[in-house]
Amino acid sequence: MKPIIHCLVFLLVLMAASTLFGCNTGDKANSSAAPAPPQVTLASSATLNTMMARGEMRVAYVAWNPAVIKNAETGLLTGIFPDMINHMADLLKLKVVWHETTLANFAAGLQSGQYDFSVGPTFITIPRSVPVAFTQPVAYVGNSAVIRKNLKPPASVQDIIDRGLKVAVLQGQAMDEYFKRRYPKVQLLSLSGGDLTAPLAAVSVGQADIGFMNTVTVTQFVDAHPETKAVFIGEKQMEMLPLAWATRHEDQSLRGFLESSITYLKTTGRLEEIQRKYPVQLLYDTPTLHTAKH
Prior knowledge:
Elements: H1 2-33, H2 42-54, E1 56-61, E2 69-70, E3 77-78, H3 80-92, E4 95-100, H4 106-111, E5 117-123, E6 133-134, E7 139-148, H5 157-162, E8 166-170, H6 174-182, E9 187-191, H7 198-204, E10 210-214, H8 215-224, E11 228-231, E12 238-247, H9 252-267, H10 270-275
Parallel strand pairs: 1-4, 1-5, 8-9, 8-10
Antiparallel strand pairs: 2-3, 5-12, 6-12, 7-10, 7-11, 7-12
Helix pairs in contact: 2-9
């Protein structure tokens, strides 16, 4: 009798185990066949779609002539970048809603969703590329210089050295590092402070023979100081820095749209037409095309 009871108990245990492990196996199979879909955030998948659906672009800007010019009385925005954005919006039948920001806060505004993207203008730098993702460069800004009108324009940096001209720069600015790194023999007057016009003003008052600063600041200074003139301008600018628009890193679709729009505006000549409207023109690149070579 006992052997029969032992057999029945064994069979019952075996059946229970089979049922238990059979269910677990089925659960694993089902889990493998139909994994839970990954979470998709609004920012990563739908910023561009949301922008199109609501019928408006929300764009951040920093006022900096000639890229973005703000009328002090009306608040109206003009300049190279607003003209580009307005042209894009017109083609898509979208309204543009502008949000003023600063270089210190534009990245935080992007992360918090205050606007869809920022046109800056913002220089691409390695530290700035951590919190935001930049488009291809829209334009480039180099550095030029100011001399007094009665001074013969130097032909090159070597000419500056050979003639013993004293060069004024701003501490920490691109040209300060440029001369210290590449031309240590230059007579350098490195000025402290945050006034971008300081090296240019040093030329006006006779402290230096030539003063370097970004081309936009140089052009505006010369317009206001007729005793000076600009040199190393146009294609002779030094230490080029790229200006680009910024998005959140996860906004790949939106960034792709902006990239395509920038390419279109460059290659069709529309960006060149826009730049002609303003006295200070930024540098930009266009593809050099040629037929197939045999």
